[in-house]
Amino acid sequence: MTLQVASNANQAPALFTKYIAPIEHTPRTYASEGYVLPSDEQERQRLLFSLLALRLVLQHNVLKAAFGNRVLLAPLPAVEDLKVLECGTGSGIWLLDLATELKGNFHGFDIESRLFPRNAPGNLFFTMNSVTRMPEWWAESYGLVHQRLLLAALNAYQWKEAINEMYRVLIPGGSVQLGEAGPWKSGSVTEKHQTLVQNLFESRGLLLDCAVHIPQMLSNAGFIEIKTEVKTIPLGRWAGQTGIDGRDNFMGVFRGMKTPVLKMGGLGFVQSEAEFDRLLDEVEVEWDATPGSEIEFFIFTAQKPLSSAL
Ligand SMILES: C[S@@+](CC[C@H](N)C(=O)[O-])C[C@H]1O[C@@H](n2cnc3c(N)ncnc32)[C@H](O)[C@@H]1O
């Protein structure tokens, strides 16, 4: 994939300007213009009234199952009062789950607060911050920093800022754990759809292939002991309930990109809202009918050296 970073993340590179005539439809609201997934009241309501149906909960369960029911892959530093930080926490589902396994203090933050859990236990708290610029006074405070699925939110420069910030807020010997989706495959409709998503990401300067770059970015920031685990998640009915769960989650992700795609005039792939919906319906049918349809998911772990003099 050619990386094309827009000088302004909200501005389309020249390649796409000929397509930009927004297609009228009823948009959902978005946390920020640079972020291409929905995070709105509709999702908040679904969290309150139907936890099992919530895509972020389903997503957490799908990812946890793919990694052998583990939420934590990173080693923990030998400290008595462990402090855990989660960047882009969303509904806090990962942090809530980890808090059932570990003793410590758990802090999640996000640029959007509407999905924060209302009745979290007393050792969990949530704040509004951006991963690209955390408060100065968080320096060397946390034993573990986690971030999952911000690929639709960060451009190349913001990735660098975010990873440098994670390094700064970790104590020496602390660990980072990052989880990101990779490429997906099925048949020809999926190939077309993947190109559409790639073009959407490129038009916003986002890194769809961030998983390729993360190990180097971690190393550049000063992290050591960089490790990668990758699992494939089956997509579609052919793989039984696991495939249905994977399909429902990732179809939810991709259907949620409708507004950004239509705002960009369909990026040369679709001419109307109905055409977008039809394309996504066809992707879903293809996944159901094509054994081997799957998406890769990566978890990276790394450590801040005990001494920077090493
Ligand atoms: C796909 S959701 C993932 C939520 C959660 N990490 C999970 O795995 O369930 C991405 C989240 O990142 C948040 N986000 C986007 N840009 C951010 C930024 N610069 N700093 C912090 N959070 C951000 C969004 O508001 C959204 O809640």
UniProtKB/TrEMBL annotation:
<dbReference type="Pfam" id="PF13649">
    <property type="entry name" value="Methyltransf_25"/>
</dbReference>
<dbReference type="InterPro" id="IPR041698">
    <property type="entry name" value="Methyltransf_25"/>
</dbReference>
<dbReference type="InterPro" id="IPR029063">
    <property type="entry name" value="SAM-dependent_MTases_sf"/>
</dbReference>
<feature type="domain" description="Methyltransferase">
    <location>
        <begin position="84"/>
        <end position="174"/>
    </location>
</feature>
<protein>
    <recommendedName>
        <fullName>Methyltransferase domain-containing protein</fullName>
    </recommendedName>
</protein>
